[in-house]
């Protein structure tokens, strides 16, 4: 109803205007036309013209009875620039002309049948400046007004005003004179009589009286509740009342919703004897319940108002108490504001629960500001007030964009409040910007800092040293603006980054673009930019620009510094100039370009002079173009004139000669720009033309183009042919065009387009023949050609009738990349009003199909359905992809063609590629759905596979701007799914990894966060006989690095491992790592040769992709190394070749190619310390030794540097039952690489001979030597060592055994006679030795089972002995023997390895 009050107020004002106008009419009529009836209409028209303005037109129809007291007007229509917005029908005024003689307009009745207020008026003209009267004596009217009754039975308020259409009935009266005014008004709705408005106002300033009584009452779902969008549409009651003298007046506002009191506010005004006005306002309530939605957040909760202030009417305001508190904000003010005295004003605005949410509605949306805090302080004498004002906003948004992190401040230490002059320092800081317009996004980019040290006076604003800093534009501005004259003087020096320019242009600039100059003039009609200078790496421009009213004068000159930035394949510079003079509607232009010794696509442009003169008049443009020069010594001559006459524009002559290439023609444009003309061309050397455009091309083309326009139809006749055209990998051989089009719009054509070959890279169309045949209003087309060695054909027709064009596709067939594609059935494409409609366009390929329906124009509505499309089709374009499965889905495209919105859904069943197959993954199921809109892709995916493999997630990816991403994925990865890939590395792993990942940042710099965890997993390294159980791993990612917070597991052979660390994951960082592994009594058993228990740590640090470093300290508590009895001499690689292999085998090995070298090699640095002070046992082949020591490994994995070694703690060597003791000086050392150097010595005695065995040299080629004291030959030394007697005394069997021993010492496979006997007898041990007397004796032994071993011995005296050994276990053995001489023995043996 508040709107209703305003509307009725406007109606009253219009009636008052009408009454005053009528009074003027009466006086004019009496004095000028008297009582002539025909003069009434003339007088009314004159008044309507006087009352009209550029924004408001008043039309009055059918007036009568002006002077007889019964004025009747048929209608009054009020219009603005958009048309009528208000209308009054059948206006009747019953008044007394004679009452004017007493200075009173008296009317018994003012009525209108219909008053229709359709919409609010639109203002386009600038408001006239307000004029201040020389003096004012308060309230007064030129004459008294007395209207006994106002009757408006049909008052209509349109939807554009009130949100919906309303019909009201209003009546009242008005009485006013120079000293008082009285108004009564009653209104109600036709459809809801209970909805009422009543107003009784009496205002008598001279009598110091004001009476105010206004009531609004509406039932539920009333007009006011609807206008304010009150929740639930409650019943509304509002009562505003007050009465008393103005010097001591009190009023009250009360409101209730559904009968429940909601708001109560009381006010009081008093006037003291010294002329001070005092105001008190108190109250509050649920104010938000009476406000429109945009204002509710600001007044949410309980609102309290407490204001007590005094003012003198001369500018001084004293606030004793000023508090406004709501559920979301507190506004407090106190102190004095006095332009002539001392000031102490403080005001604050803060939010009670977060920032203050301020909103203000706009025509196309709303302005919204989230205000953190506002503080204002004015202190000190008026002549030098100190100002300190600050505002902090979280954000401010409009429909055009959003800015955030805003800080605004205004400070002054000495501001003259009385004269409104002095310094004022303004500073604005913006931390975030985002605009809908991409142009604004480029120009205005945070962070922004604007500092303006203003110097203010009543008539001027100085802004010297104003600075702007931002991520896109910066610089300084100096100057002064005079308010009265609108004069502006100053200078500026700005810079901009290339990113402020549109895409496609910005990438041509490097560094900053600077702009500086001086400005002077009167805003906005007369402005001058002088000493203007633009500098960049591309061009430099200098000059002046002047605007005088609607006339522009420009004189600019400059140089293009690097033509390659503007023209591809160009080298050189060019001078440019631009002069313009004249009115903006017909600006005279003179532009020049001059280039000398410029390289274009490898050719030399000797000179080029281009001059363009003309008049830029949209109604009658004129231009003259001349160009001359030479390229590769061949002349360039181009001339063209454009003239306008009788609304027609023509180019009577157009000639161009570039070397041997010639072009001639003329063109005439009708007032509707329909062209008519001819053009002939003979271009034997296209390479020259291409070079001028910075391109490389070659070929020739010759022909003509005729254009004719008549009766709204444009016809073309084209004839052209050549031997061939080539540009890069595009080749067109023998093109020939012979085409006649009678009506270009309807495409009524006859002719053909032919070419022997059109090829681009691997794509090749041969024998192209496209023919057009006109059949009445229909044009048939027929394409025959060959593509990928398969026919490519299509047939159809184009027909225009009834304002629409129909393209009939009868057939289409081809086999690109051997994929058969054909049109499933004939279809139509209907084009009408710029909209193309498709219905059931279906292409079949590979057993699947794609069907398209919908419309396409400025707005899109296209639906596509994909059914059972084989994924293997992609293999034709990417042979290594090896895609499998079937794809189905839907696609819907809507929105504008310039900014389409796409909704899609796909299902790829049986999905597999070469990557998934090489990873050992079974076929997957992949489902995806999402949309694309506003350059943002939103996607949701679901991936499932074998063994419970599942991954779900999605998010958004922007494809423009900084290409921001916000993706999230979660799922399970069973290690069984990786069984194939792990098996290739000799690994077996069970368990499941849980994945929870988020991907943010941009596509250029992604930020990955989330976690990967597994518990209870098991890893088996088959090749190394390692099993890690109870494996628990937690890896978290924070966008910068992967943190291994938990890594632990138990070795089944004993002990455990644990670890932690980080790996950097930012792009181009090289993946820096810092990982530590701890071994806790970790036991390794390879099952054959080695068993070891290790403690210590290993770490890897540094960038994994370039130079990681392996560090650590390991301590081997105990290790057992078993030397096998036999070692193979060598193993050689077997070269296997597949001959006549089946297709499956060939496919398996097709992608197995040697890995190409990496762009950056990875070098693993090493810094390891290995300590083994003792208990390194080496046993086997007669060796029983213990070693200890330490080694250090440094360098790199490719070139390790090993130092240190192992020293013999104790040890012996047994050769054929003879024992040699190692000396404690025996050592195994490392001298730089991984190959150990041996220096070992073992001694024994045989009789009086001391025998020494030396093992020296590198482990890869050890040298074994025998020596003795006294010195003997080596074979004699060996005989003494083994048999204790000279070589000459050995039997043949002993010599064979000696050879076998020598073979064993060499470490090779024995092929001696002795070994042969052992094998053929089927025994496990065969021993021939001598007794103490030098007599030979033979022993043979065999294992009956794992625990029982029996041995037989035969001596030279025919004494035979049988021995049995029974292994009880735990190192305990039972031993018994019996001889042929009746002797026997028995015993228990205990053995323990240490």
From TrEMBL:
The chain crosses the membrane at residues 12-36. Its main location: membrane. Keywords: Membrane, Transmembrane, Transmembrane helix. It comes from the Bacteria. It is found in: Membrane. One of its GO terms (cellular component) is TAM protein secretion complex. GO terms for biological process: protein secretion. Residues 1046-1394 form the Translocation and assembly module TamB C-terminal domain. It is a single-pass membrane protein. InterPro entries: TamB_C (IPR007452). It holds the Pfam family TamB. This is Autotransporter secretion inner membrane protein TamB. It comes from Rhizobium hainanense.
């Amino acid at each position: 109803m508040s709107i209703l009050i305003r509307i009725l107020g406007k109606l009253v004002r219009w009636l008052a205007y009408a009454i005053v106008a009528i009074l003027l009419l009466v006086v004019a009529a009496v004095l000028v036309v008297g009582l002539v009836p025909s003069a009434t209409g003339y007088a009314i028209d004159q008044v309507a013209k006087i009352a009209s303005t550029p924004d408001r037109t008043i039309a009055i129809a059918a007036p009568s009875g002006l002077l007889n007291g019964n004025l009747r007007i048929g209608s009054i229509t009020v219009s603005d620039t958009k048309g009528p917005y208000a209308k009054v029908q059948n206006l009747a005024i019953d008044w007394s002309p004679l009452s004017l003689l007493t200075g009173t307009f008296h009317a018994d009745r003012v009525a209108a049948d219909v008053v229709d207020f359709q919409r609010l008026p639109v203002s386009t003209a600038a408001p006239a400046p307000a004029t201040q009267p020389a003096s004012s004596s308060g309230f007064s009217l030129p004459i008294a007004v007395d209207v006994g009754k106002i009757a408006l039975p049909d008052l209509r308020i349109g939807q554009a005003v009130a949100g919906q259409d309303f019909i009201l009935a209003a009546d009242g009266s008005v009485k006013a004179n120079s000293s008082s005014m009285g108004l009564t008004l009653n209104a109600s709705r036709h459809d809801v009589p209970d909805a009422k408005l009543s107003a009784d106002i009496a205002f008598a300033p001279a009598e110091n009286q004001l009476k105010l009584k206004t009531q609004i009452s509406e039932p539920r779902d009333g007009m006011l509740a609807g206008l304010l969008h009150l929740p639930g549409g409650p019943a509304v009651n509002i009562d505003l009342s007050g009465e008393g003298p103005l010097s001591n007046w009190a009023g009250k506002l009360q409101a209730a919703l559904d009968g429940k009191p909601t708001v109560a506010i009381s006010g009081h005004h008093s006037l003291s004897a010294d002329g001070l006005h005092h105001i008190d306002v108190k109250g509050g309530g649920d104010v938000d319940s009476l406000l429109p939605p945009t204002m509710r957040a600001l007044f949410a909760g309980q609102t309290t108002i407490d204001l007590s202030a005094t003012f003198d009417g001369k500018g001084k305001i004293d606030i004793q108490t000023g508090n406004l508190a709501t559920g979301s904000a507190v506004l407090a003010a106190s102190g004095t504001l006095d332009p002539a005295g001392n000031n102490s004003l403080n005001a604050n605005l803060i939010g009670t629960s977060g920032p203050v949410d301020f909103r203000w509605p706009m025509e196309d949306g709303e302005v919204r500001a989230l205000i953190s805090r506002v503080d204002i302080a004015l202190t000190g004498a008026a002549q030098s007030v100190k100002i300190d004002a600050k505002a902090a906003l979280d954000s401010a948004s409009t429909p055009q964009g959003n800015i955030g992190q805003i800080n605004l401040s205004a400070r002054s230490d000495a501001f003259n409040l009385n004269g409104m002059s002095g310094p004022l320092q303004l500073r604005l800081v913006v931390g975030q910007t985002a605009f809908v317009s991409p142009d604004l996004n480029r120009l205005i980019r945070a962070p922004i800092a604007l500092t303006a040290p203003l110097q203010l006076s009543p008539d001027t604003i100085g802004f010297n040293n104003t600075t702007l800093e931002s991520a896109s534009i910066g610089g300084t501005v100096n100057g002064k603006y005079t308010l009265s004259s609108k004069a502006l003087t100053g200078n500026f020096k700005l810079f901009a980054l290339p990113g402020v320019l549109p895409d496609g242009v910005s990438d041509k600039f490097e560094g900053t673009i600077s702009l500086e100059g001086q400005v002077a003039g009167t805003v906005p009609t007369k402005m001058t930019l002088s000493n203007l200078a633009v500098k960049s790496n591309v061009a430099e421009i200098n000059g002046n620009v002047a605007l005088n009213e609607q006339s522009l004068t420009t004189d600019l000159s400059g140089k293009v510094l690097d033509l390659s930035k503007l023209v591809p394949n160009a080298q050189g510079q060019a001078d440019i100039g631009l002069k313009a003079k004249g009115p903006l509607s017909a600006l005279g232009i003179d532009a020049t370009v001059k280039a000398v010794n410029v390289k274009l696509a490898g050719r030399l442009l000797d000179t080029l002079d281009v001059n363009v003169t003309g008049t830029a008049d949209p109604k009658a443009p004129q231009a003259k173009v001349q160009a001359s020069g030479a390229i590769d010594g061949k002349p360039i001559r181009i001339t063209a004139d454009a003239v306008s006459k009788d609304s027609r524009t023509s180019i009577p002559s157009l000639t161009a000669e570039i070397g041997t290439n010639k072009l001639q023609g003329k063109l005439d444009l009708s007032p509707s720009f329909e062209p008519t003309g001819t053009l002939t061309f003979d271009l034997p050397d296209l390479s020259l033309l291409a070079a001028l455009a910075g391109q490389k091309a070659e070929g020739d083309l010759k022909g003509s183009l005729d254009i004719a326009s008549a009766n709204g139809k444009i016809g073309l006749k084209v004839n052209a042919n050549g031997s061939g055209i080539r540009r890069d990998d595009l080749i067109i051989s023998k093109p020939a065009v012979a085409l006649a089009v009678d009506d270009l719009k309807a495409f009524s054509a006859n002719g053909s387009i032919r070419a022997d070959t059109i090829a681009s890279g691997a794509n090749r169309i041969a024998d192209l023949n496209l023919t057009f045949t006109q059949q009445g209003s229909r044009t048939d087309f027929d394409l025959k050609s060959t593509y990928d060695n398969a026919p490519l054909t299509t047939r159809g027709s184009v027909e225009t009738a009834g304002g629409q064009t129909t393209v009939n596709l009868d057939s289409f067939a081809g086999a690109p990349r051997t994929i058969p594609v054909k049109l499933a059935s004939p279809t139509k494409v209907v084009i009408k009003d710029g909209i193309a409609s498709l219905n059931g366009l279906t292409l079949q390929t590979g057993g699947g199909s794609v069907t398209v329906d919908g419309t396409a124009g400025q707005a899109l509505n296209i639906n596509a359905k994909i059914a059972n499309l084989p994924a293997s089709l992609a293999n034709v374009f990417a042979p290594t992809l090896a895609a499998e499965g079937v794809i189905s889905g839907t696609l819907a495209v809507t929105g504008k063609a310039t900014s389409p919105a796409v909704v899609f859904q796909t299902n790829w069943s049986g999905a597999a590629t070469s990557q998934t197959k090489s990873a050992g993954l079974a076929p997957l199921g992949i489902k995806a759905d999402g949309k694309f809109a506003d350059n943002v892709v939103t996607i949701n995916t679901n991936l499932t596979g074998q063994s419970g493999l599942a991954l779900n997630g999605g998010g958004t990816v922007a494809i423009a701007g900084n290409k921001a991403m916000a993706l999230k994925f979660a799922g399970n990865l069973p290690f069984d799914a990786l069984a194939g890939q792990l098996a290739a590395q000799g690994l077996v792993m069970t368990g499941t990894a849980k994945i929870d990942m988020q991907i943010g940042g941009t596509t250029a710099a992604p930020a990955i966060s989330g976690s990967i965890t597994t518990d209870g997993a098991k890893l088996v390294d088959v090749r190394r006989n390692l099993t890690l159980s109870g494996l628990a791993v937690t890896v978290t990612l924070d966008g910068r690095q992967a943190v291994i917070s938990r890594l632990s597991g138990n070795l089944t052979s004993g002990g455990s491992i644990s670890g932690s660390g980080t790996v950097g994951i930012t792009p181009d960082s090289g993946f820096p790592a810092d990982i530590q592994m701890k071994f806790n009594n970790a036991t390794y058993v390879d099952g054959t040769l080695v068993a070891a228990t290790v403690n210590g740590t290993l770490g890897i640090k540094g960038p994994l992709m370039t130079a990681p470093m392996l560090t650590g300290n390991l301590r081997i508590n105990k290790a057992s190394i078993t030397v096998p009895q036999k070692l193979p001499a060598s193993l050689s690689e077997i070269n296997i070749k597949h001959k006549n292999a089946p297709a499956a085998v060939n496919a398996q090995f097709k992608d197995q190619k040697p890995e190409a070298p990496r762009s950056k090699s990875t070098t693993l640095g090493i810094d390891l310390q290995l300590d083994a002070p003792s208990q390194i046992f080496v046993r086997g082949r007669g060796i029983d030794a213990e070693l200890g020591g330490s080694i250090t490994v440094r360098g790199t994995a490719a070139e390790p540097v090993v130092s240190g070694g192992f020293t013999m703690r104790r040890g012996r060597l047994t050769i054929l039952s003879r024992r040699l003791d190692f000396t404690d000086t025996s050592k195994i050392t490392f001298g730089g690489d991984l190959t150990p150097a041996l220096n070992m010595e073992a001694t024994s005695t045989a009789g009086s001979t001391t025998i020494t065995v030396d093992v020296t040299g590198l482990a890869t080629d050890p040298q074994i030597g025998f020596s003795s004291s006294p010195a003997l030959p080596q074979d004699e030394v060996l005989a003494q060592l083994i048999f204790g007697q000279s070589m000459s005394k050995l039997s043949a069997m002993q010599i064979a055994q000696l050879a076998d021993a020598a073979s064993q010492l060499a470490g090779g496979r024995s092929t001696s006679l002795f070994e042969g006997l052992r094998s053929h007898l089927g025994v496990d041990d065969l021993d021939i030795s001598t007794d103490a007397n030098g007599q030979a004796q033979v022993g043979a032994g065999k294992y009956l089972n794992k625990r029982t071993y029996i041995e037989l011995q035969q001596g030279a005296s025919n004494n035979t002995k049988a021995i049995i050994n029974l292994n009880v276990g735990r190192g305990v053995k039972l031993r018994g023997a019996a001889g042929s001489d009746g002797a026997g023995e028995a015993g228990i043996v205990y053995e323990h390895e240490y």
